[in-house]
Amino acid sequence: MIRNYFKIAWRNIQKRKVFSFINILGLALGFGCSILIFLFVNYHLQFDNFHNNSNRIYRVVTEEHQDAIEYEASVPPGFASVFRSDFNYSEKVANIFIRQEWQIDGMDSNTNRLLEDVVFAEPDFFEIFNFPLQESLGTHNFAAPNVAYITESFAKKMYGDSTSPLGKTFRLQNTETIQVIGVLNDIPTNSSVQGDVFISYESLKNYSQFAYSKSWGGITNSLQCYTLLRPNQDISHIEKTLISLVSKYRPKSKNVHRYKLQPLADVHLEQKYGGINVSLLWIFSLIGIFLIAVGCINFINISTAQAFSRSKEIGVRKVLGVSKTKLFWQFILETFLISLFALLLGIGISIGVLPKFNELFELQLSIQSLLSFKVISFLITLLLLVSLLAGSYPGILMARILPTLALKGKLTQNDTGGKFTRKVLVTAQFAISIMLIVATIVIGKQINFAITSDLGFDKEAIVMLEIPEEIELLKLQGLKNRLNSISGVSNTTACLSSPGAAENEWGTSFRYHNRPQYEEFSIGAKLADEDYLNTFNLKLIAGRNFFTSDSITEVVVNQRVADKLGLSSYEELIGKQIEANRGRVKATIVGVIANFHNQNFLSGIGPVFIAPEKTGYSELAVKIDGADISTALKAIESRWKQVFPKFVYQYKFLDERIAQQYIEEQRFLSMTKIFSGLAIFISCLGLYGLISFFIALKTREIGIRKVLGGKVKDILAIVMQDFFKLILLAGAIASPIAWYFMNNWLQNYTYRTEINWWIFVVAVGLLLIITLLTISYKAIKAATANPIKSLKTE
Questions:
Q1: Which tens digit of pLDDT belongs to each residue from 141-152?
Q2: In a domain, 463, yes or no
Q3: Are residues 341 and 442 in the same domain?
Q4: How far apart, in Å, are the Cα atoms of 284 and each of 40, 145, 288, 290, 765?
Q5: What is the number of structural domains in the chain?
Q6: What is this structure's pTM?
Q7: Per the database record, which ranges form the ABC3 transporter permease C-terminal domain (predicted)?
């Protein structure tokens, strides 16, 4: 019986090659995209799950309660030691301190000079996390200063394959000599903690006294604290207990801390603490469902339309005693075969585009990942669901055809049913396409708005150079003088970070003038020399710039400071004193500048002061003439090597760095464009199949209309008007839904674009044009055909 079902199903597929091809291709594209989306979503949801006891590993984070709540993926440097000694909740506690792109040099001419991400880690870090050692020097202790574990990949890059790296040494930032005492397996890509070089935390005191200290006065996201809790701990109880640390160690601060335990599984998925925007995962999942749904709709529409042409076949089989149930399962099996072919083709498509997919999202998904149990289970489930969803309704329609009407040739389209359902499903296809088009336009509009808006400072033709930490001030000033002598260089400034960069800005509580209390809000500090304002064209609206100084005695603030203080004019700030960083900074306000985006476009503009602090500079900004950039870059590199011959020269353009802040949105836009195009293409495949079938049924009607004087345009209007009505209906349904979801998405941005009415008009109009192009070929061919031939044959 099953064998006969397969034979009949295969014959029907062969008999209707064009329609079978349309169904298979539409479903295959849906399957292929769904496979990639499943791999993408599963990759992100499985972050950090490879660690032993991952359900007991937590990162300690901080909520900073002031006039607003800010979220920091860190704690003060003194937290870890107190949590370890004063409480009994944890088995292990460890700090890590992350530094990106630090220079590492070998000790002889046969080794390389590399820029690597460096992680300073306390010994318990490797007891909390499962980063196994391949080999180690058993006589050495990771708690000792100037020792390191390195990954296998880094060992090969640094020392080659021929010799063991154990016992070898390297220079870190051209200052300290570090010995390799262990080789780790490469860190998995789905690990929240990334790095190729792990150096003992005891070595950190040579580079950051703040992070190595027991201070409770500041927070930097470079410092993170992880803990392995004892089994069966009550997280809410621990967090309530930690409130006592605030009153004990930060009794006078207006910046009220709340220390929270973040599960390891949430580290990658909580955007407020620096993780990804998890809503994008669910949006991608929804798009995958949409694409499968569009393919299924094509199948249902074409299959129900074919019910009329297959009526005699069904009538004969019913007369021969085949039951409705057997006819239903026969059609389900036919659907299963088509779905199976489509799935195999979809797997091939996903394998073919996987390298480009990895490149777009900076992933390392492999073909072998398709062979995992989870993926295979997903594919089998998807195959069965699609077979049932796509085959059930057409199977029911065909099974209920009356054999007497079918064999007498008196069966009509109304008798086979499905006409209303087809209209509903086609409308659903159009609605999905319109929603995706609207999403593409809105996302692109927001990204363009963020990148092209006036940020309050110049970002064009500014080169950012990372300068070595703890450099001699004379060398820095010497480099500035050499760079300023280059033709085409207009300004240079040394700073902790540029405008629009949040990574190196630090916030602090402050007291204004003679007010007795610290303010309820913190102020951001941009450490920079006196050329900062001119280089970035920050507009001075009151007072003057600060003078060159070896310490912070004068500061410039932005307008937002006056707004937050409730002052009536910006001139009121001039000459007033501020005290910040627990009294370490006492300075006079000498100037007020216009507001600028001190962090990124996702955040609001906060109060900021700019002040000179020569020991705190990490970057050099060089403003160059855009007319001859390549010549200027070569000259800058030459001057750099003259002053810092032992350090790697690297630079980035400020506008490119700012654009990188929106890389997640750029990828989201690329994905949405691709999927919107595919949804429209799959819908057009279905439309082509439907129009081919309906024109074949209307051949006689078209011939009669032409004989009676009907014009080609009138016949085209008859063929197309139903589809155009459905598109307009779909636009009316999809527009409010698309507006709701995209408006919610835009709420993630403090500064956002508008969702204009013309976006929906463009989406509907674009779909009208695409539909017209899709069905016009068949419609024009039928309208211009010789009516005598159609009337003879029909």
A1: 898 999 999 999
A2: no
A3: yes
A4: 9, 47, 6, 10, 25
A5: 3
A6: 0.84
A7: 286-401, 674-787
